[in-house]
Specification:
The chain has helices at about 1-10, 15-40, 45-60, 60-65, 70-80, 95-135, 145-160, 160-170, 175-195, 200-220, 225-235, 250-270, 275-280, 285-320, 325-360, 370-395, 400-455, and strands at about 85, 90-95. It has about 450 residues and is an all-alpha fold. The relative contact order is 0.12.
């Protein structure tokens, strides 16, 4: 069945990598409504608020990842121009490029091992303190142990990032998308099972556990040689290394990483602050409505970004070859495809929520349909801006940093103030205005300026 669908998508012009990405997002479009239905029928309104607030708090992993996944993928794409994958994850090709690739992988693995431990140690108490505010209302369900387990699962997933980042950067987008698709299916099924068995908030842990089980199963089965290469370098068993084959982290990686890290941290305040703010000021029920709407918006965003993410490694390789014509040509195609998908999805999503609110009780678990439509339209502007951002970052630079920081401050402040004063209407209106008036126009202006500067030089 899977191969049959892949063949159909390839006949429609999608390559295998994008096909798996599309299938993953299509699964999200199918599983999302099922999950929403399960949450709406198996959790109380207060439990729903806790569930989605926990999901938003888990997104704080951005503060530990600090953009390194994207940076590693970009560096790997430049090194893998002269490399190929061998059996079980062996790396073959130019010796110098191979050594730099392995050095990048091992240093990335060190970073994420420390980040995973740090995430668990820091995030567990932070979440317990934050969620305790609503828990003082004497809720009659378990939330502390589910929170701790969900953080543990997130930490285990975090440690897989460097390995899949270099696989993505190598151009093997198909593998990454396939793993994501299988992980999404397993996570959804586990989540539904827990909810069906009245497991309550343990469903949050089921989602994270499904992802890390699939990720580690793939790495141990398909890329054991890559894991060995990283371990030998980390443990010092690889012997002395040629200085020319080293990745000098603070000189090569960090100048891009710290900029991207600030961009990602700012992104939390742009996309993830809605539910925690409403949880704090409007209560768990309103936070749950926003969280359920946000989950639908994230599905729309994920589907729309499939075309952009699948082409990111190709962007890096074209920059390395200085093939500007092909680079611009692919960007135009990506923008057209992702824009059509995002506009279509936003329209269908808003109409579906309106239908549910008019005919079914579960529709009241969302914010009002008019506000959901506003929010989804803001996603469309974000998707288009993301395409230009991927193009710029393929040059190993981050010219969008000042804009990202400004957006984090403006959007974060708007979400806090408008959410506190005007609830969901405030945060949705602020989101679409900022994305349409600031994010997209300024991003396009920056892209145009730097594109002329780099390509002329």
């Amino acid at each position: 069945m899977n191969d049959f669908i892949i063949k159909i998508l390839r006949r429609l012009g999608f390559n295998r990598a994008i096909s798996y990405g599309v299938l993953s997002r299509v699964w999200g479009l199918f599983s999302g409504p099922v999950t929403i239905l399960m949450i709406g029928t198996r959790l109380t309104k207060v439990e729903q608020g806790f569930y989605y607030t926990i999901s938003s708090l888990l997104a704080l992993q951005l503060f530990f990842e600090l953009g390194l996944m994207t940076v590693m993928a970009q560096f790997a794409s430049h090194e893998f121009v002269n490399l190929t994958w061998g059996n079980k994850g062996q790396v073959n090709g130019d010796p110098l490029a191979k050594e730099r690739f392995i050095d990048l992988l091992s240093k990335g693995a060190k970073w994420f091992s420390l980040a995973s431990v740090g995430l668990f140690v820091v995030l567990v108490p932070v979440g317990l303190v934050f969620l305790e505010n609503e828990a003082n209302a004497r809720v009659d369900f378990s939330w502390r142990l589910p929170w701790v387990l969900a953080v543990a699962g997130t930490a285990l997933n975090l440690f897989t990032i460097p390995f899949f980042a270099v696989v993505m950067g190598s151009g093997d987008v198909m593998t990454v998308n396939h793993r994501e698709m299988v992980g999404a299916v397993v996570s959804s099924v586990l989540c539904w099972t827990v909810l069906a068995l009245h497991g309550g908030l343990y469903a949050a842990f089921a989602v994270t556990s499904g992802a890390f089980v699939i990720s580690w199963s793939y790495l141990l089965r398909e890329k054991p040689e890559m894991l060995k290469l990283a371990w030998h370098r980390i443990s010092g068993k690889a012997g002395n290394q040629d200085p020319e084959a080293r990745i000098y982290w603070w000189r090569e990686v960090w100048p891009l990483q710290w900029k991207l890290a600030l961009t990602w941290v700012a992104g939390y305040f742009v996309f993830q602050l809605f539910t925690p703010v409403l949880f704090r000021y409007q209560g768990a029920v309103v936070a749950g409505q926003m969280g359920m709407t946000l989950s639908a918006a994230n599905a729309l965003l994920g589907v729309s970004l499939t075309w952009i993410n699948a082409r990111t490694p190709e962007f890096g390789k074209l920059v390395a070859k200085r093939d500007w014509f092909q680079l611009d040509s692919i960007l135009r195609k990506v923008i057209l495809q992702s824009t059509v998908v995002s506009i279509s999805g936003a329209t269908v999503g808003a109409l579906l929520i309106l239908f549910l609110q008019q005919h079914f009780q579960i529709g009241q678990r969302f914010i009002p349909a008019s506000q959901a439509g506003l929010f989804f339209s803001g996603i469309v502007f974000s998707v288009i801006a993301a395409a230009f951002g991927g193009y710029l970052r393929a040059h190993k630079q981050e010219p969008l940093l000042p804009l990202s920081i400004a957006l984090g401050v403006v959007q974060g402040g708007a979400t806090w103030f408008l959410g506190m004063k005007y609830s969901t209407l405030g945060v949705t209106t602020g989101f679409v205005l900022i994305n349409s008036v600031i994010t997209l126009p300024v991003t396009v202006a920056i892209w145009n300026s730097f594109r002329k500067k780099w390509h002329t030089a």
